[in-house]
Structure formats: structure tokens, C-alpha cells
Here is the input.
Amino acid sequence: MSNLTKNVLWAVITLIVISLLFSLFVAPASQPATISLSKLASDIAAGQVKEVKVSGSQLNIVMTDGSAATSQTESGTNITDTLKNLGVTSQELQAVNLQVVNQSGWSYWLSLLIVPILELLGIGFIFWFMFRQARSGANQAFTFGRSNLKLSSFKDRILFKDVAGLKEAKEELIEVVDFLKNPKKFLDLGARIPRGILLMGPPGTGKTLVARAIAGESNVPFFFISASEFVEMFVGVGASRTRDAFMTAKRSAPAILFIDEIDAVGRQRGAGMGGGNDEREQTLNQILVEMDGFDRDTRVIVLAATNRPDVLDPALLRPGRFDRRIILDLPDMNDREAILKIHAQGKVVDANVDFRRVAQRTPGFSGADLANLMNEAAIAAARHGQKTVTQADLLEAAEKVIMGPERRSRVISAHEKEITAYHEGGHALVAASLKDADPVQKVSIIARGFAGGYTMKLPNEDVHLKTRAQFMADLAMMMGGYASEKLTFGDISTGASNDLKEASDLARKLVTRYGMSELGPITFGKTEDMIFLGREITTDKNYSEKVAGEIDEQVKKFLTHAYEVAERVLKSHKTALKKIADTLIEKETLEQDEFNAVLKPFKIKPMVA
Ligand code: ADP
Ligand code: MG
Ligand code: ZN
Here is the structure.
């Protein structure tokens, strides 16, 4: 806004300067004396006046001695009568050269018009300033229909080496750039140059990053626009911006046009609720039209990215449009390690940091999460006044992202501490005693987020499939805390409630989705997942009340069995449980090797859940 005030100030100053100039221009430099009419009359009577020029109400007087004076009459009155009334005789008057100046000359009109003209100019000037202001400011309503197409700048150039993993995506994109550069060899064989490539994947998996890497690697012009920029407050703007964007790209062919977050306009038409869809639909239609308008050898490739391919309009996906789809998955363990290493560059990281171990602890993290983790670790290191970022900082940052920050300051009584120690000890011991359970990575009784303590167990390698036996071990391990409290204190605390909820949810899934119960190989309920977001949005109940009862029964069976397994483990290793709990009360946190060392003397033989 300071810009606007500045401009208005300028306008005002300019106006003042103009009016000053005007008054200088109109008023002569040396003013003749102004005299009254009676003085004029007496001067005439005394024969001192040579000439009187009357123009309107203004009297310009020249004396016999050559000096000038002015005077004023009422306009419209006869000057001769006025002077006679003031006692000038006819003879005296005849001695004076009395002229009435013709007032219809151009100078008269100019003098009449110049003030309003200047005023108009001034007002126009102010308006011009305000329009310019409105245009250049945040309100872009005046740039109707021009796309904000950016030719990617190579200031922070990103190359493939800055992108970890995503091997398939990179290969596919390299091939596409090859199409652009040497179309002849493809066209000669009758192949059609692909037009649209859709990058799909969960948020933060590097869609934008890989697109930028293509810009950095290929030497063709790369135009970047976010689909949300197409849509502004006026209907029709999006469509004309789309036209503009495609035209710009075509003009500099071979080129790549990248439309980020295309779901902002590419949503299935007619599917939205409420108003406000017209604009989006028109924009989408325009994109479709533009893509169809490509000639067989138009060397423009349209790259788009989305994390909601499920909501895209089918018309966008049909052959000839975005018919090439590249899926970017969440990184696996190797990729996580590589991503961590990329983001460790430029940070002072301790030489013996084991990135593999951090990668192990971060299943489900996206590239963006990992970049954030590295940064959090560096911040923590700086806060603690360290010289380097250590392994502990990294692991702590990972846990903070998953479970929330540690709450060391929470005061807990000795008794609560004991309950928590036995609870977590129960989880850990059950996990360690079952053949199919994942290894325990860490046990802690420091409150974190909403949890009073936690037992972290993660596979050493990425898993893509899980078996029934593994699920049974998971269920038993979830029951470990509950069973341990009951066994040790003969009572149960609220600390187990979250475990029970998770166990119940898992048991229900085993029955209704995985066909792992006695009800056999069948799924119940129609569930639609939001692709990539991993959230269930709707579940239609497509079974009878009787079946619902049976499902509940099976769920209960799983849970009871899990509890029995946990109880059996804990009962047969009572001394081990006590040892773990005591160590936890003393040390509060046990890392994987410390935990294993505590258990070693007991020589526990893993069993099947
Ligand atoms: P999106 O898929 O949501 O467009 P981005 O491409 O914007 O995700 O990624 C966000 C950030 O995450 C990137 O700027 C980068 O720092 C990091 N990142 C994501 N994937 C990778 C990767 N494969 N290699 C390196 N960094 C990555
Ligand atoms: Mg993105
Ligand atoms: Zn628990």
C-alpha cells in the first residue's frame, strides 16, 4: 500500500507544480498599480490619463507619463456612465483614448478554458496513477487472460543427481526429452510423439523436483505454471490463460510445458458440489482443446503433476492427452538413505552417522519428510550448541515427526512410572519372544505426544506383503502392555486404551478385508480409498445384520487369542519382564542393542503366536 500513497503524493505534488506554473504564466511579472474608480475619475479630470482599455470588467489604464495602472468596474455597466456619475465631464473624457477590447479572440477563450483543462488533466493524471497501481499490485484482475507463464530460470538449477531414487520416472522422462530433440528417428518409424505425461504420487515424493530436474537436464525451454494460477475470480480467465500458455510453449518448440497440481482444474466435471465450477470446467475444456490441437509433429510435451489422480476427469487421461503416466512411490529404504544423504550435503554431519539406520526408522516417510527431518536435526544440533549433527539428533528428529516431541517435563509419580515401565516392558518382551514379530528398535517411558511411553518395532527391511502369522504376532504384541499391567498389578490403567483401539481396528481388517478369519476368503463392506492419501473415505455396508454379528465374533476371537498369547509369554518370562521394567525405570530409554543386552541372559526362544 505504501506504493499507492507514494503515487498519490506524486500526483498531488505535480498538480501543485502545474497550478504554480499556470499562475506564473497568466500573471505578468511586474504588476501595474491597481487604482480605484474614483481615483481614475479624478485622474481623468486632472488630464493625467492617456488611454483606458476596457476588457470585460478589467480596465487597463495608461497614464500620460507612460505608467500603467489597472482598475475594476462592475461587469455589464457602461464605463462612460460610471465615470460621468463620478463627476467626469464629457470634454475631459474626450481627451482620453477610450477603447473597448474585443473579447471574442482566441486568447479570451483560452483564458476561460485553460483552468478547467488543466483541472481535467490533473484528475486524469490521478486516475492514471490509480489504474497503474491496481494493475501492478496484488490485484491482477487487469491482466485478463494473460498466463503467468514462467520460463524456468536456471538460477537454482536442479539436476538428476539431486534427485534420489525415482529411477523409472527419470528413465521415462529422459526418453521423452530424446523425442523432443530427435523427433525424426521416431517419426520415420511412424511413432507419434507423446503429448502428455502425468506424474502421480503422494505429496512430497518429488514430482515437482523431478520436473525441475528435467528442465535442468534437457536443453529445451521449460515453461512452468501451477494450475491454480489458471483460475482467478473471473470466469473465462482460466481458459484464455490456458490458450496463452500453450501458445507461448508452441512458439518456442521444442519445449516442455509443466502444469503443476493439475487437479486444481482437472477435476471430474460436474462432480463438484455447489457453484463455482464453471470456471474450472472451462479451463479444463480449454486444456483438452489445446492438447487435441497439437499437430502430429508439434514438438511440445505437456508434463503435469498431481497427487489426486483419482479425481481427475477421465477425458484428461484418454489416449492423445495424458496417456503416459509415471507413478512416483514413497521411497523405499535404499532411496530413503540416498535422499537423506542428498540433504545432508551442505550440513555439518558427524562422520559416523549411519544413514541406513535412520532410513530403517522412517518407513512411510516421503522425500519431503526426510528433507524436513534433516533440517530438524540440524536445528536441534544448533540449539544444543553442538559442532556437528549426530546420529542421535537424526533419530530424535524422526521420532519427533512420528510421535510428537518428547515431554520430559511431564511430572509423573513413581507409581505411574512403574506402571508405564511394566506396560512398555510387556510390549517389548512379547515382541522379542515371538518368531514373526518385528525386532524391537527402542523402548522408552518418556512421554511423547499423547503416549505415556512407546515401544518401537520396525522391520529391518521394507515389507510389501504381510502374512497372517505376522499379523497375529502384531496383535499379541499390542496386547503385551495390557496383559503386563494386569499380570503385575492385578489392575488395568487407561494407558492401554490406544493399544486396544488399534488392535481392534487391525483385527476387524483381518476379517473384513484380508479374508484371514474363519469366515473365509471374502471381503465385507465396500471401501474406497483415496489413492496415495491412504485414508478410507467411505465404507458401504453390504452385508446383513447376521453377518455383522459373525464378523464381531471373529474380531473378538482374534483379540482374545492375542491376549492369551501375550499372557502366556509374560507368565513364562516373569523375571525377564521385571528386569526390563527395572532397567527402564532406571534409564528411561533403551536402544535396540541395550534392550537385546538386557534380554540376553534369559535365552528366550522365539515362539509362534
Ligand atoms: P511433490 O511430489 O509434492 O511435488 P516436491 O517435488 O515438491 O514434492 O518435493 C518436496 C521436497 O522434498 C523437494 O524439494 C526435495 O527437497 C525433497 N524430495 C522429495 N523427493 C526427493 C528425492 N527423490 N530426492 C531428493 N529430494 C527429494
Ligand atoms: Mg509439487
Ligand atoms: Zn501400549
Observations:
- Residues 177 and 219 are 9 Å apart (CA to CA).
